[in-house]
Amino acid sequence: SPESLLYPYGLEERDSKTPKQDDGTSKKVTLAVPFTFYGREHRSLYVNNNGVISFGTRVNQYTPEPFPLADGRPFVAPFWADVNNILGGEVFYRQVTEPNLLGRVTEDINSYFPTISYQATWAFVATWDHVAYYGSKSQKVRVQRWVG
């Protein structure tokens, strides 16, 4: 099944959840280890309901703009969509240091990038699980994940 391709997630994995809110976002997440993104070290991030993991600032609005953004906000957009989880679904997230899961992350990354040597010592997992889109009237659902 498609879910078997995903890393484990949910409350049983001790994930946190973003609030049930249109254009909502997590509290500031302090990282256990600094994360370097485009040459800049970050020590915290936000998980935004609209499918964006941002550094330094929340990204509350859904802004379908081409990259790079004119204002230079640093973020990763694994699932950039107009999500309204009040209408359904959850956004889960956690930091990972568990050796078995880090082994799987290492194996996955090395299979996709065989010319580099990579060993995961920390990962951040965010999952947009069966979230509804703004204005949704039916049971349309999506699942997405990002690991970094």
UniProtKB/TrEMBL annotation:
<dbReference type="InterPro" id="IPR003886">
    <property type="entry name" value="NIDO_dom"/>
</dbReference>
<dbReference type="GO" id="GO:0007160">
    <property type="term" value="P:cell-matrix adhesion"/>
</dbReference>
<dbReference type="Pfam" id="PF06119">
    <property type="entry name" value="NIDO"/>
</dbReference>
<feature type="compositionally biased region" description="Basic and acidic residues">
    <location>
        <begin position="11"/>
        <end position="25"/>
    </location>
</feature>
<protein>
    <submittedName>
        <fullName>TECTA protein</fullName>
    </submittedName>
</protein>
<feature type="region of interest" description="Disordered">
    <location>
        <begin position="1"/>
        <end position="25"/>
    </location>
</feature>
<dbReference type="GO" id="GO:0005201">
    <property type="term" value="F:extracellular matrix structural constituent"/>
</dbReference>
<feature type="domain" description="NIDO">
    <location>
        <begin position="78"/>
        <end position="148"/>
    </location>
</feature>
<dbReference type="GO" id="GO:0031012">
    <property type="term" value="C:extracellular matrix"/>
</dbReference>
<dbReference type="InterPro" id="IPR052749">
    <property type="entry name" value="Alpha-tectorin"/>
</dbReference>
